[in-house]
């Protein structure tokens, strides 16, 4: 059977507006409206997955409340069935339609939603078994939900009038796409519709939070587009009159949970993710190595990479890194992808996946990526890079 051709439909985000106190968008561009209606037809009438832009990365969406439709996300991506999906909503009316009767949102959740929705923050809620299929949550009693801020994403959900389950629009394990062309190169022929709304603003997936434990603490299961520092600031400002402001704990940094790693309640926790098609080595140039790990100089690193045949190596590093001046001129062909200033981890985050996919397309033999400090957006960057890298080297500049 010949695969159906993939159509890329342009959408103008600036033509989409959500007026206050309304759940329906105002769309002033006829081409954009037509694209959204076409995508909605494929989603609702044909139960097909559709790729669309969000502020984080491009998503592969299907009707979240339909098991057959959601199943096609897993088959299209080659995604393991025990890897849950995030449900995307366009309005608070749609959110409340997914929640159990009588559920009362915590004050912490109310504060976070007030400041970060619509936006790159995913929250875990109790699952309503009669509404949300088990395939979405991998059998867990909680469901991950967010409201995207990208106009095209939110409008598509509103036009389709149904919540959309949507992981990143790529083959499972690959770097997440941040442009429509990334999706097209990977999933061409596997899906029929890609909505092109331009490059994603954030460039990394959403931050996922679990605030459902009895202790009231906010557990960051996956760092992402909303920083831990911003979450703490909002809770302190909004709950300053409370007897106790919730602690914010980051999984694997501040606490461990073997159970959740074996049976994750949210994407990005169990499996290797974000890996390009060629080997990726993480260069730790500022962190101290753990006990038993040796360090190498930059020259020793490059000597170890020499094979007698010219190698094409892709390099991702901050624009102000000493690494650029240390690249030897002989024996290697270099493909450079600067990731932005060290002092601006948000730029590093925005460029990360595009850098991996750009160098992959340039047919490099391997890639090197330099670490970034793990604060602000750097925490999410290093979360992704550690999962993507097959090797880690501790390097000292001499």
In short:
It contains 13 helices and 19 strands. It is an alpha/beta fold.
* Strand percent estimate: 15-25%
CA(first)-CA(last) distance = 59 Å
The protein's oligomeric status is single chain
**Which residues sit in consecutive blocks of at least 5 with pLDDT less than 50?**
none
Biggest sheet strand order reads 4-5-9-6-8-7-11-12-13
Overall pLDDT, averaged? 94
| Coarse shape | globular
Structural class: alpha/beta
Number of helices in the DSSP assignment:
13
- Give the fraction of residues assigned to helices: 25-40%
Can you tell me about this structure?
By secondary structure, the chain is an alpha/beta fold. Strands 4-5-9-6-8-7-11-12-13 form a nine-stranded mixed β-sheet, with helices on both faces. The chain has a six-stranded parallel β-sheet with strand order 15-19-14-18-16-17. It is globular.
List the helices and strands and how they pair.
Layout (H helix, E strand, L loop, with lengths): L6 E4 L5 E3 L6 E3 L2 H16 L4 E3 L6 E5 L3 H11 L8 E3 L3 H7 L8 H10 L4 E6 L7 H4 L4 E5 L4 H10 L3 E2 L14 H8 L5 E4 L10 E4 L7 E5 L5 H11 L9 E3 L7 H5 L17 E5 L10 E3 H8 L5 E7 L5 H4 L5 E7 L6 H17 L4 E5 L6 H12 L2 E6 L2
Features:
398 residues; 31% helix; nine-stranded mixed beta sheet; alpha/beta; 13 helices
